[in-house]
Design goal:
single chain; disordered N terminus; 15-stranded mixed sheet; alpha/beta; 15 strands
Length: about 500
């Protein structure tokens, strides 16, 4: 047989040697080549059915089995959490009785002692302190006044670790206002030296986009010879409320006083500066960094019934800044974890694995609590099967930020779906939290709870948490009972 000419189009269905276009119809009048096409289609259908049966159906069966095994239990837990008000009352007691809980303070010491003793009363096991050393920075007095072009008292909060004004006296100096580090660099030492630098960087889309002006503002200003640094509070909304937080010095440059001012005052100073009006401020700060003080984590467990040596770590940080009472940041997170375990125990639901509640200390400054925890438990990392941290406020839970393998993400989503329709949460990849980061970095999969505030029309209010974050407004009255119950 002569080979086919490759320059001509070849149709195998029309090749008579394959039973193509012939008059050899079967008894039903169907040509042979059409039977081949029909057979191919039927074979494809069979393959598709097998895929559905062997691949898709087991996934559905897996979800169905999970729902069948745990669905009723999950709904019972949700119902119990939504009926319980005792956890909310406890949260209010800690916030209102002990107040703010900055490291080294009496408030933090009393709160950790109360939490420890109350965990024992709850019947949790292996309740203990984990002692460590914590930063002991003390805020005393601070004032800020604009003395030119006219007299105006302004609100200021020193940032963490800030030094006092020199010689324990007010510091009076001219002002430069910049919107970012590039503007500061453009001014240079000639125009910045001897001045107070004011950073007026608006909170546009995210906390991470502007927080560097708080953490590194003073060190950068000092590099150009500034005598003090004032940062616009890191918040999208203000009612003349200042927001504090940690800042860090650079050992290569002098330590200068560092403070946060309100959005309103930052905007006023920027407006005057842009109009070429000479501004003079008088700043007074009386703060001190003392030697480290004793601090401690609080740990308690609900021991597992089958594999107690395998551990799930859940918790939040019990320390706060020295403004407000740290209700959202992060007393709420502590109680989300604590109350979840207390609720399970009350319902008689003992987990297969041990659930360990950890109240970390010193998250707001050095992270000493999470480092201490890791030092004590690093030999348990191979049997620490999961971690969960809540440190984003107490609003409506909307998603988990997951860190770990892809299969784990799918499992977390399947488990999360068991809460529907009461609570609807997505699972996305992301950081789990400051205190559990060291665990995920060492191979422990985990999640961080993400929450959002919704308006009356059901729309998300962006960055609502930062309305209160690190401010005098972070108090118990800002927490809603239903939001708290859903977080638990």
């Amino acid at each position: 047989m002569a080979p086919h000419n490759i320059s001509e189009e070849y149709d195998p269905l029309m090749d008579e040697s394959l039973g193509g276009d012939t008059d050899d119809d079967d008894s039903f009048g169907v040509p042979r080549y059409q039977k081949i096409v029909i057979a191919s289609i039927l074979l494809a259908i069979v393959v598709m059915v097998l895929v559905i049966v062997l691949v898709i159906n087991p996934l559905e069966n897996k979800e169905s089995a999970l729902q069948e095994q745990y669905g009723d239990i999950v709904q019972a837990i949700l119902a119990e959490a939504q009926d319980d008000v005792s956890g909310f009352a406890r949260l209010a007691y800690m916030c209102n009785t002990f107040g703010s809980r900055i490291t080294g303070s009496t408030g933090l010491e009393r709160a950790t002692q109360w939490a420890h003793d109350t965990m024992i009363e709850d019947g949790l096991e292996r309740v203990e302190f984990e002692d460590t050393n914590v930063t002991n920075w003390v805020r005393r007095n601070e004032t800020l006044r604009m003395v030119a072009p006219y007299d105006k008292l302004m609100i200021v909060l020193a940032l963490g670790y800030s030094v006092a004004t020199p010689d324990g006296a007010p510091l009076r100096a001219g002002v430069v206002v910049v919107r970012d580090f590039d503007e500061l660099e453009a001014l240079g030492e000639d125009q910045v030296s001897g001045k107070i630098v004011v950073y007026n960087a608006p909170f546009t889309t995210s906390y991470s986009g502007v927080v560097s002006y708080r953490t590194n503002g003073a060190a950068t200003a000092s590099k150009y010879g500034a005598v003090a640094s004032l940062t616009r509070s890191i918040t999208p909304v203000s009612l003349a409320t200042p927001h504090t937080g940690v800042q860090y010095y650079d050992s290569d440059y002098p330590e200068i006083p560092a403070g946060a001012i309100t959005v309103e005052d930052a905007e006023l100073l920027a407006s005057l500066y842009d109009a070429n009006v000479t501004i003079e401020l008088e700043l007074y700060m009386d703060h001190q960094l003392l030697p480290d003080a004793p601090g401690r984590n609080v740990v308690g467990e609900l021991v597992g019934r089958e594999v107690p040596d395998e551990i799930l770590v859940i918790g939040g940080h019990i320390d706060s800044w020295d403004q407000g009472s740290g209700a959202h940041d992060d007393a709420g997170g502590v109680f989300h974890a604590w109350e979840a375990v207390r609720l399970l125990k009350r319902m008689g639901l003992i987990p297969r694995r041990t659930i360990r509640v950890v109240m970390w200390t010193a998250e707001e400054n050095t992270g000493a609590g999470s480092m201490e925890y890791f030092e004590r438990h690093q030999n348990e990392m191979n049997r620490t099967v999961f971690s969960l941290e809540s440190d984003g406020g107490t609003f409506t839970p909307v998603r988990w930020y997951y860190s770990g393998g892809a299969s784990g993400l799918e499992t977390v989503q399947e488990i999360s779906d068991l809460m529907k329709p009461t609570i609807n949460m997505d699972v996305v990849e992301g950081g789990t939290g400051a205190d559990t980061a060291i665990l995920t970095e060492n191979g422990v999969p985990g999640v961080g709870l993400d929450v959002d505030k919704f308006d009356d029309c059901g729309n998300i209010i962006p960055n609502f948490y930062f309305h209160y974050h690190h401010s005098p407004a972070d108090t118990m009255d800002k927490i809603d009972l239903t939001d708290f119950q859903e977080c638990v």
